[in-house]
Amino acid sequence: MEFDEVIRGRRSIRGYLDKPVPKALIREVLELAMRAPTSLNTQPWNFYVVAGDVLDRIRKGNVERNLAGVPHSREFRMGPGYEGVHRERQIDIAKQLFAAMGIERDNKEQRQDWVLRGFRQFDAPVSIVITYDRSIHGSDIAPFDCGGVVNCLVNAAWSRGLGCVINSQGIMQSPVVRAEAGIPDDQVIQTCVAMGWPDETFPANAVVSRRKSVDEAAVFRGFDD
Ligand SMILES: Cc1cc2nc3c(=O)[nH]c(=O)nc-3n(C[C@H](O)[C@H](O)[C@H](O)COP(=O)(O)O)c2cc1C
Q1: What's the predicted TM-score (pTM) here?
Q2: With contact defined as beta carbons under 8 Å apart, do 150 and 166 qualify?
């Protein structure tokens, strides 16, 4: 695939075929993703790739604890909830997804079912938990570097026909993820990425999220034209 085709074609995938992903292909995608640049080439990231029974136990623990009201235990700062234009964009993508899935605004049951899918990592066959070395915890640079590699990862996967969704919901109950994936204490959990073969019949997979324009985002100074 051409670069533009990957970047423009990729979208978050939230419905997967019940078909395993070969370990060799995941290794290939990781190797490509790890070409991402990092601060001083420190490459602070690590990947815990889980599937099968291990991933099923993470899904189960995540759903059970969230339903039981166990407070979230993400290992990074969340800040206040989104407001203004950020809140508007958050609502906009939710509306697009709910419209595609036929989920009515006031149908609490359907909305809850969608949230639970997220906690189950959308039943993807693979989840990649991204961590970084705790020895450099405290700076914003390591999370920045993890963001860089995750962006490369989802695009590298797409270039090989695989779909992904970066899934904060999957690591909200970090002790479950840590225990089941065998993540040692010297690692900080940043996020996880659900991965698998896209189910082309799953309506939400067709949703193309909107972007603000370059004019809204970029300021140019000192140019002649
Ligand atoms: C840090 C981060 C966390 C995310 N967490 C979730 C999540 O928990 N559940 C979900 O459905 N999508 C999640 N997403 C996917 C975003 O909703 C998605 O990337 C965004 O709406 C743009 O859509 P696109 O990926 O299809 O271009 C996350 C994305 C990022 C970057």
Answers
A1: 0.97
A2: yes
